[in-house]
Amino acid sequence: MIEKVMEVNMKGLSSLTRLLCVGAAAGGLAVGLGLDRLHAHEEPDAGSEAHYRLFIGDHADGVVRAVEVEDGSSAGTFRIDQSPALTPSLSGRTVFAVQGDAGKVAVIGTGISLEDHGDHSDLKVEAARLLPTVISGAKPAHVVEGSGTIAVFDDGTGDLALFPEKQLLEGGFEPRLMKPGAAHHGLAAPMGSHVVVSVPHADPQEPRVGLKVIDKDGNQVGEVANCPGVHGQAQSARTFAFGCRDGIVIATPGRGSEPPVLEHVSTSGLGEGYVSTLKGGTAMQFFLGNYGPNAVVIIEPGAGESFRKIDLPTRRVDFALDPAKARNAYILTEDGRMHLLDILSGRIEKSVRVTEPYSMDGHWRDPRPRLAVAGGHVAVTDPLKGLVRLVSTETLEEERTIPVEGKPYTIVAVGGSGAVH
Length: 421
Prior knowledge:
This is Metallochaperone AztD. Keywords: Plasmid. The strands form nine sheets. A four-stranded antiparallel beta sheet has the order 3-2-1-34, with no helix packed on it. Helices cover 4% and strands 47% of the residues. With 421 residues, it is mainly beta. It is globular, with a radius of gyration of 21 Å. Strand 28 (337-342) and strand 29 form a beta hairpin. The chain has helices spanning 15-25, 166-170; strands spanning 48-58, 63-68, 74-79, 85-88, 94-99, 104-109, 112-116, 121-125, 129-136, 140-146, 149-154, 160-163, 176-178, 188-191, 194-199, 210-214, 220-226, 233-236, 239-244, 247-252, 261-266, 278-280, 287-290, 295-299, 307-311, 316-321, 328-333, 337-342, 347-353, 371-374, 377-382, 387-392, 398-403, 408-419. The chain has a single domain, classed as YVTN repeat-like/Quinoprotein amine dehydrogenase (Methylamine Dehydrogenase, Chain H), CATH 2.130.10.10.
């Protein structure tokens, strides 16, 4: 438009804890599962170099600013039509600046890439640039990547554009267009040669009703999986999770060319609330979702107890996963405190004040902080102060700030470590 194994007593541990114990006993878990090598930032070895870059959308103006984490210097300012939602590609080579009301998705080449050579990765750092391709539509919204394909869903028409990232970077943009259904606030997730796509209600004023699988020709395969009000998705390993008003739907890949399998899992035992935003783990297969305004939920597909709900001291503003420290999640609440959640234990291990309070009263688009993990820092936008705060992933203490013009709001981080030749 993700040799010898010592015996470990695992009785009573969660499946995630068991997974980590086995990995550690076998010599340690590798960070990432090949889904996001660029974000799987380990401490650089001798002879390697690390580089991280932030892309920050302004709350009021149509501008995205790129900033170097190392020294806070500008890596580029990119003028677009309106304040964007930002989504990075899995490779980290591109960032999508979605401007739904303007009917456009701008694409920024981040200038950072890692080429995998098995035993090491080569890091290449270039200038960031606004790419010439602009994806247009009536109201483009969700950008989702899977199986080497990027999908842009157009809420205004219900249409879908599918393409590989290299078409944006190398030119020759020729997306495959599909019309899976009527216009609605929807989403689509590529899985192999199939796509999982949301299903609208017959009444356009009513929320989405579920999810379906379509093949490469747009034909529905199998039955619709009920998922009232479907909203939010994430990928962990090759599995997708989707939020519903009454639970989640897990989409697991089919064998060979077979279609993915959709399974609804109820959250009725968790009390009032539902999942509408999801993040996917990298080195371990799990999802972290919101659950009402005052809680998050750890989701372990296939576990005996799929959900662990963690109540928060006050309302949640934003949350992020650490792709390198696989057990760490960071949650910012409206009192300005950041909380370190241990995914394995399900406990909040540390809480530190990092900003002034930001009330969740008011419109959901009001300027509030957003989080992104960049190496050993959680980058926190502070719109009312005109700052990005760099908070240590170890201590949660602020190490330094980066002044940013305007009202820094949405944020993504790209980068990693690799050999520099």
